[in-house]
Amino acid sequence: MQHTPDLGKNSLAKPDPWAKFRGLAWWQLVLSLVPILLLLVGGAIGGLIGAAGLLSNLSLARKPFGTPVKVLAMLGVVFASYLCYFLVVGLFLNVLKG
What we know:
The chain is mainly α. 64% of the residues lie in helices and 0% in strands.
């Protein structure tokens, strides 16, 4: 008799888009989502930088660091995201104005 593999509900369907967010503490979710707010302020440039910050913070949230180290590292990513956005926009405006 041939054994058929277990085809769970997500095995052939689309992957769960929210899987990266499941299982995180509330503060990890908040710190992960703060960089994507650049999308509201900066359009495509802000969205690109914010998405990079979001993915970086999601990665840091899953690392086996202590809570204080995670908080500081994730706050650093948030700060770096906003700083990078303002630097890129400043350079862009400087080039446009000549």
